[in-house]
User: Fold this.
Amino acid sequence: MTRFVNGAPPDTGREAGPRPPLLVAVSGPDHTGKSSLVRTLAGLLRQRGFAVATVHCYGCVLCRMFPVPPRVWEAGEPGGTGAGGRGRRTARPERRGPWLRRAHAYLDAGELGLRIALARRAVSLVARGRPVVVLTDRGPLDGLVKFGLPADRGAARRYARIAGRYDLTLLPETLPDTLAGRGWESGAGSPAAWWARHLGWAARLPRVVRIDGEEPPARLAGAALEQVLGAVRPGPRPAGPQRRRRVVVSIYDDAENTDYRGGGALVVEKLARRLAEHYEVTVVTAGRSGGSVRRHGIRYVRLPVCRAGPRAGQLLFLGLLPFVARRIPHDVWLESFTPPFSTSFLPLVSRAPVVGIDQGRSPEALWRRYHLPFFLVERIGLRCYRHIVVLNEADASAVRRLSPRADVQVIANGVEQRQLDDARPGDGNSILYLGRIDVWSKGIDLLLDAYASARPPMELVMAGGGTSAEERRLGQLLAGRGLGVRLVGWADEELKARLLRDSAFVVLPSRHETFGLVALEGMAYGKPVLHFDLPALRWMRGGGDVAVAPFDTVAFGERMRELAADPVLRGRLGRQAGLAAQHYTWDEMTGRYLALTRRLVEGPAGARRPRKDRRVPWQSAH
Assistant:
């Protein structure tokens, strides 16, 4: 923060002329006290020797002439006259016709830019050598939220250019209930929805600072003043907006990949959303066709490899990734390892830091299954990485042996937190298998053998999808055995929640796991988890789990029968599981990734020059 003596800025000896005016906006939904904060802030700045101009620019000339904007009636809507019906006025701009809305946005952005230019010129003429600040009670952020335009529209790009002129945008955050208590109009929609729009756009604009709007007015004004003074720099500011740091996350799996749709895709989605609050984020994943889309402020780039099939697609993805890393500019790259080789040697082609994320490392398991030495490639590749994230302590020890120079961190997965109902832990009428249909890796053949030998007094429900070959193999295992097994196929979030609520306990018979996100999801619902005692699953110890010797199907079946017949035991273990799951939150997990990324991007390791922007057709968002 810049400090002044006797109300005047110090003489730095470097000034070649008057400083450009500092441009500051106070943004946010209505009823957040923007105008009053601007007035208070202007008075505090004048006391410190600044020449201040305040610009109250809420709404363009159309908004002032017609306080409630026009609306286009939709066909079949009550009160309308069809598709070409008459117009009326509404406070919901997103319901207006698209052409009218875009034209209105252009006019609004143009008038905002003109008012800023006039205010900066006028206050500079009377400054008499004092530092100049122009305060507006609305900024480009508010215009983007108001009109709800797609990011690739010309009007949205115009607002973004105006945002580049601002030195600081303050966003005083308040709770939706606070806005409702200050007279929020019910016709304007939910205040939570408006806040979501503001935060979404704030993550994409430069120099937006969020401050606590729930503070008392005096403390809020003090926090805002500190931010404004911190934006003052001796000498002229650099021309143009500052570039946001760029983070790329790569993973083969994706929520739209019907062959997998595993837990890794969910983890990357949560991680990308958290990073997008601070950086420009791109997710590189696999798809049936190439191209890119933008969702939730994140660009998703898909490599067209899935048509080759699940196995060949993984190999093509690994082969293409180094070439893609040379074309997409980045300040740090987070690579979720892809079987069968896990690593793709990205640190050899990127001058920026690369973090390897071991979510699906399995070369040794594949060696036992196929007798092919995939692990040799992994052992060589891991030595290229200086930063590696694993999900459990067992894998951390193995990776440290293979790559002694690497900084290896353990960051577990997270789960949505739920209120644990004391009447529901362990309560249910079925045994649940939830996960990918991969007979060997997920131990489905072992599960069916154990279920057939023990015949527990509960139905076994199997939910999940996989490749067509694996699903056929599962059908062959079930054919003619007469087991009480119900297949429900791939489960979306709603069906998954219902299956977890109705289950008595969860089974995880995997031959190989790196964490077992499904187990954590079951624990969050207060369900015990029965699994083989694998080193990677020992994070569950004492958390309502039941572990048996690896691949002992007789013991596995006996414990299934015991759990199915003893509701008191299930209830006790279920309560332990629910309490243990409360220590694994998405906020904690993504926060640790954010801290690691920030250290690499903003620290000495992040000072390496990123790759040049060699644009290719599939890189542009549609």
Q: What stands out?
A: Residues 1-17, 67-96, 234-241, 605-622 have pLDDT under 50 and may be disordered. The chain has three domains: 22-231, 246-414+587-619, 430-581. The chain has 20 helices and 21 strands.
